[in-house]
Amino acid sequence: MSRLSADILRTDPRVREARRLLAGAVGDVQARITGIRAPDPALSVQASEAVQRWGELRGAPLALPYLGSGVGRGPFVELADGSVKYDMIGGIGVHFLGHGHPLVLQAGLDAALEDMAMQGNLQQTSLALSFAEELLGLANARGAGLDHVFFTTSGAMANENALKLAFHRHRPADRILAFEGGFAGRTLALAWVTDRPAYREGLPPTVAVDYVPFFEPTDPRGSTDRARAALRAHLDRYPGRHAAMVFELVQGERGGFPGDGEFFRVLMAELRDSGVAVMVDEVQTFGRTLAPFAFQHYGLDDLVDLVTVGKMTLVCATLFREAYRPPTGLLSQTFTGATASFRVGLAVLRVLRESDLFGPDGGNARVHLRLAERFEQMECRMPGGIRGPYGIGAMVAFTPFDGSATAARAVVRRLFEAGVVAFTAGHAPCRVRFLVPTPVVSYADLDAVADRVEAVIAQGPPGEGEVPP
Question: Is residue 432 part of a domain?
């Protein structure tokens, strides 16, 4: 039987031995990472100078003085100053398997054996096919009817491609609908879909967007009626002019605010009746709710037309129904993702498929319950220091003190010094968020993180000058 040269290379005894030796070396180093560790004075000055130089070169200071050493274990990451911290944000949701996961190591080694560093429109291996079949299989597990997938290098580009498909399918429509407080990205087009005027300051208008109010858990029926009325008013004001409505089912960048299945279903039904595409942005929600996709979590499988994913998948993607199949040339990219990204992404999909992450008793639900219970206890003991809502699944957030940007940034800085990497989200209120690496955290890890949150909140509101402008 003939064999591909690639198969011969992968099974070569020398390659197998190299894998074993490298895995052993990584394991030996990881054994040194057992918990939070303070910076090494011998490394601190050099690391601080490197952070400052990088901030100057990139034209803006880093949000946190974070340069990784390249080594970590599970929820722990080692920084260039020798410190070890709990990583509860994972590059804003990218590293769902934490640091140094064996599957990621093996995926990287597999990628290093291949001759193409990047997959793309002209050159790709069977990895793209495998990834497409795996991702569509997850998406259609409950009958969603998504027929196709196009890969790209960022969540923003996945959203851009979805908008292209919607505008082409519904031409001459020239408007988009989106939620108040939503976030879709920072490209020229998406800066207008994102409901943050500061993010488009100085940018030319690119696409007309009409906003609809988001779900309010304190007034489910009222907020549903108001959103439906606003949607109907936009559709009536511009008949036939809307190509799609962008749905963030959990507003992650706003601060982890979940919606409601019935709320979404009412709006999606209106859109279907009006011939407007339903586009669901799952760049942050994918894998983090109580189902692989948030649209599955909310039971909306029959209503979605276009779905985007990214972050934890590393290879970002636009999934779409047959009706949105593009003509030749509408979607095309030199790069659709690094070979290593495809292999790591496949490892992530395997974990999602095989691990106990989903359902009301799954890992994401357990992570959320553990942290939310601790935060609720803090709210009772320290009123005014911390308050919810606390997000959903592996997307966990809280509002510190008065909810100002200064308060949230101060808490994130304090947590960083205490050994926990978190990040801010939203405005009015500004919140502190975690995107928890569910597969690699234990209750002991979550409790240790919560202990540090409590200690930071106990310090009281930030003083003048605590956070640099």
Answer: yes
